[in-house]
Specification:
alpha/beta, globular, 3 helices, three-stranded parallel β-sheet
Amino acid sequence: MRSNQVRLNCGVTMPLIGFGTYSFENDKHTTELAVLMALKMGYRNLDTAKIYGSEAALGNALIEAMQDGTVEREDIFVTSSYGAVITMTLFQL
């Protein structure tokens, strides 16, 4: 049977399925609410990228979720795609 988690070399178990935080036209309020709902539904792997512009909304949602007891910091994984910014910049030249 397949697992929905992977064990990393350091021994930590990480969820395979993540919640993407891209938002149309950088709607930070909607992104924050979506992340909060995702956390309440059980998502613990959150994906962002500099190009999305969603870092502040993601951070605000995480702070709120930790303060209200929805999640613990050690249960959260935040992944990012820094390379996408470099790629986009090169194509815009």
